[in-house]
């Protein structure tokens, strides 16, 4: 790899990483129509809308919440300075207790990526903090992102009428 190639990768990482946010309103963000929330909704059929970070609260009572990933579930990233609208990814495959592959839109701005590694780096192994593969530099990103957990299409546990 040449010095120029390394410089280009570094500039891409520094310049684009803060922009990897996902709004879900109109489906059009700063970079066009590819956004994480509309993409996740179209793939999973979840009836949720708005910014990705709001999906956790919006889904309470309508869908099950879990801290254990399964294929087809949606990982919901919290709102942060770097991700003001949060982010959502769809679990493609579970690779172990701390590793999954996801499909997602707009992590790399304007793109849909499939089979992207995400690792749980939380102390409690509860998926409350993750690191995400950063495709432009072909390595795991250094930033740690807080998450709420996973939304499942299953109905939430409800108390029985006898309880």
Describe the structure.
This is CHAP domain-containing protein. Residues 11-131 form the Peptidase C51 domain. It comes from Gluconacetobacter liquefaciens (Acetobacter liquefaciens). This protein is an alpha+beta fold and 163 residues long. The protein has one domain: endopeptidase fold (from Nostoc punctiforme) (Alpha-Beta Complex). It is built from three helices and eight strands; from the N terminus they run H-H-H-E-E-E-E-E-E-E-E. It has a six-stranded antiparallel β-barrel with strand order 2-3-4-5-6-8. The longest helix has 14 residues, at 3-16. It is globular and about 50 Å long.
Residue stretches low in confidence (pLDDT < 50, at least 5 long) are 10-21, 24-31
Helix content estimate = 10-25%
Strand order of the largest sheet: 2-3-4-5-6-8
CA-atom Rg in angstroms: 16 Å
Q: What is the second-level CATH architecture?
A: Alpha-Beta Complex
Q: Compute the separation of the termini in Å.
A: 65 Å
Number of domains: 1
Helix and strand sequence: HHHEEEEEEEE
Give the helix tally: 3
Name the overall outline. globular
What structural class do the secondary elements suggest? alpha+beta
CATH class: Alpha Beta
How many β strands by DSSP? 8
Keywords:
CHAP_dom; 17% helix; Papain-like_cys_pep_sf; 3 helices; CHAP domain-containing protein; endopeptidase fold (from Nostoc punctiforme); 163 residues; alpha+beta; 8 strands; 6-stranded antiparallel beta barrel; globular
